[in-house]
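Weekly structure sync, notes
Attendees: PL (lead), two postdocs, one rotation student
Agenda item 3: pending single-chain targets
PL asked that the sequence for the first pending target be pasted directly into the notes so everyone works from the same version. It is reproduced below exactly as submitted, 226 residues in total.
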Amino acid sequence: MGSSVPKTYVIDVSAEAGGAGDLDTIGGWPVLDADQAWPVCDCGERMALYFQVRVPTDVPHFGGNQLLVFQCPADSDACFSADTQLPPNYWDEPPANDRAFWRILLQRNGTAAELPDPYLRAHRLILHEYEDVEHDNDRLPLQDFKVGGAPFWVQDAEHYRCACGTDLAFLCQVPENFDFHSYLRDPDESLDCPSFDDGLLLGNVVYILACPAHCHPAAAYPVCQN
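Predicted structure, written out during the meeting:
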């Protein structure tokens, strides 16, 4: 038997529309701290809120935080592998990409924005507790959309150290080619917003690693594999 890894939650998309104040959504009203502006891509476009979840309190390091994942609607690519030690301000100046077209935030005292994301129809997400496992010869970690637990690496495991000196910890996994595109308010928008056709970080399996020391709200790095 694989060793137990508790504090894992599977994320499912509900058929119910999301509303202002919902904490777990695709699209919707981002729950941002008062001093946190809606992220803007280096290209000048305001980023789209792909999803947000309130991390359950029993998930180590990040319990009780609001996780928000944004990406530019016009600019997309994979986040490329970097050296283990990440440089200062890697969330604004990713070491292996030309520019930061994504923004991952962990907020502690947020309130819902006045307006919802203009690109994606708000849908509620439902979190279900699950008993995950570490990767071994008997069982494999869950491959689904999840927060907490252990990553299911489709290639070699990747490890990074935050600029503050703390090793990043696994927080969330998004499956390959997760269909955010189907939640567009207007499917024709994809003609002007090509990143929705490409998928979150080019449709790769996305592993979100974040700084457990919370040295900066955006101290997180997305690992892309396929």
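Discussion points:
- The CA atoms of residues 33 and 59 lie 21 Å apart.
- Helices lie at 195-198.
Action: rotation student to compare against the earlier draft before next sync.
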